[in-house]
Prior knowledge:
255 residues; five-stranded antiparallel beta sheet; 10 strands; globular
Amino acid sequence: MKYEIGYLSDVGILKKVNEDSLLIKYGVYKDGLKDEEFVFTVICDGMGGLEQGELASSNLIEFFERWYENDFSIEMSMKEIEFIWKEMLENVNEVFLEYAKKNKISFGTTITGLLIKNDEYLCVNIGDCRLYCIRDDIYQITEDDTYVEQEIKAKRMTKEEGKLSDKKHILTQCIGASKIINPKFYYGKVERGYYLICTDGFRNELNDEELYKFIEMNESEEFNNTLNNRLKKIATVLKSKYEKDNISSILIKVL
C-alpha cells in the first residue's frame, strides 16, 4: 500500500508554549519484487497542568526516535515491537519519575504511537491522545485513560454526561506522573481510508461527525485540499470556537 501524510502542530490562541511533540517516519522496503511502504508516527501531549510539559513530550519523542534510528527493523513482528515499546515506556516512566523527584516538580506526557507495515497497524496509547479510523464513517480505535472514560465503562456515567463533565480532562495515567503505567495496544488490518492521530486539543470542540466532514472534504472543492490544509482548516475552526489548548494531529491517507 501507498501512503500520504499530513500533519499540524499549532500553539493555539492561549498558551505561550506548544507542549505537543510529533514524530513522523516513512520508508520503503522490498517485499519480493514489489516496493512497499511503511509509516511510523508518534504524538505526545505534555501535561499543561504540570510543569515542563514541552520537555516531557519532546523527550519521549526522542526516545522513540532513537529506537527507530538504532533498533527498528522491518523484519520485526508486531508482537516483538509491542514487547519492546512496553518495556521502553516503563523504563522512560522510571526516568521521568526520578527527574521529577530530583527537581521537585510534576512532570508528564501522554502518547499515541502508530506503526503501519505489511498492511497491518500497531498502536500504543497512554492518556487521552486518540487514533481514529475514517472510511465510510469515523471510528475511535483507542480508549482514553480518563476519569470520565472509567466512569462510562463502569456505567456510572453516560457518554452525554461525560461530554459535559468538568472532570473530562482528568487522566488516570500518563508517562512521568503515574508510578505504574499500563500501555494499551491495538492491532488491526489496514484498509484504504484515513488514520488520524490527534491530541485532545484537536478534537475537544468538535464532534465525530464534524471531524469526519473536514477529513473527507470533497476534492473537487475550490479549497486547496491537501491533507495539511484540511488540518489547518480544522485548527482555524477550533480557534474560532476558543479552543484553549495546543492543537496537533497527524493524518495518514491509505491510497
